[in-house]
Amino acid sequence: MLSGVRAGLVSADVLQREQQELRRLERSNKRLEEESRHTETVYRDKFGRRRDLAQERLEEKQKAEAQAKRDEQYARWGKGLAQGRQQQQNVEDAIKEMQKPLARYIDDQELDRMLREQEREGDPMAELIKKRKAKENKEKEKPRYNGPAPPPNRFNIWPGHRWDGVDRSNGFEQQRFARIANRKAVQELAYKWSVEDM
């Protein structure tokens, strides 16, 4: 039978022996039950090695923190570093302006500086200041090509200041311009031919 005892007509001694055997098995199982009740579950990987779950959780947490840090950095880069700095500057300027009193008097230095920096139409000194700034900028400008007019190109880019004036192209630009001019001429001729009867 499933319980481990014999089926059918059984004598009392056989029944007693079976009962004792069952009790003995139960006692040995009880001891194993007690021992295993307070033990921790052993988790193993697919190769049969023990897994340290606490260590794995710690590693996952560190990976998640590193990923969050990386995502935050990419989000900051995606918006643009210069734009972020500009936004921060705008916030600081707005806070600074909010802390100023509402009424501004004539002796306010910041107001005076701001008004002086504004350019007004018809200001005779503004032209002199522009000339000075242009002169300073001209000294900083890169040199430009000063020779004879270069052949046109499709991007209208002026040659570099060291260009010697020799056209070393393979003729693609000239062919392109010729095709464009030819196409335009054919379209114009076709239009004139189509409206000739009118």
TrEMBL record:
GO molecular function: RNA binding
Biased segments, Basic and acidic residues type: 28-74
Region annotation (Disordered) ranges: 28-91, 116-162
GO BP terms: mRNA splicing, via spliceosome
GO cellular component labels: RES complex; U2-type spliceosomal complex
Family statement: Belongs to the CWC26 family.
Name of protein: BUD13 homolog
Species this chain originates from: Rhinopomastus cyanomelas (Common scimitarbill)
